[in-house]
Amino acid sequence: MVKKVIHANNRSVIGILFVLILLLPMFISTIRANVSGAADSVYFHIKLDTLGGISMGRVLKLTYALANSKFDTAVYPVFNDSIERISGPEQYKGSSYALLNGEESKSSETGFHYLIRFSHSGEIELPAASVTVENRTYTTPEYRVTVRPAEIDMNALECDLVVRRLPGIFVTYCATLTCNACPDQNPPLLTINGKTVRPSSNSYSSSEGKEEYIYNYYFSSDGYEVSCKELTFGGKPYPLRPQKSKMDDVGSDGFV
Fold this sequence. Notes:
- It contains one helix and 19 strands.
- Residues about 1-10, about 15-40 and about 250-255 have low confidence and may be disordered.
- It has one helix at about 1-40, and strands at about 45-50, 60-65, 75, 85-100, 105-120, 120-125, 130-135, 135-140, 145, 160-165, 175-180, 190, 195, 200-205, 210-220, 225-230, 230-235, 235, 245.
């Protein structure tokens, strides 16, 4: 009786092994599909900041991004006379999350970016770049853009730079740059006491065909010297008188 039980158990084990052998190709196929899907999710592409349009003279952020991986080596783009490289390459990292029909989708990107300016109008091709990931090379696909001529009426252009003293104890001053058109470098940079500063906040409004771009720069110091750094419109510089002050020069209302 005991022997029959043992034989029955052996037959059960053999049956399970037989089923596993039959299912093994399916498991291998599934693994291969997952690996192939992961490989297909890695790609290298170009992103251009087109907020506000693409026109001559505007400073734009150009990014070369590798999705869902990190690269080992890179061949950087070569810019021709149509594109002025202002700065870069600088390291870039990004991520995104989406929820569609109850399914989550996550992706991450690494790469490098530049600040560029188009010196010509018309159709311009952005230069390609390539990276290697574990001995595999990824190259950006062709990317062409249409660059519009600069359309800035310098006679109607108005910008104003003011500095006011704040009543709080944490930040001493706020420099505010206001323009009725979008500067080429958006957001524009200021030089405050010898340091290049990005705006702490900015806003935009449009009413009855009139636009207003406002940029605020908060800082603390005993006195100040504030000036615009490369404030241009359509590639043409817009001069603004620097704001300077010492503690003795500041009035009770905080303005110079």
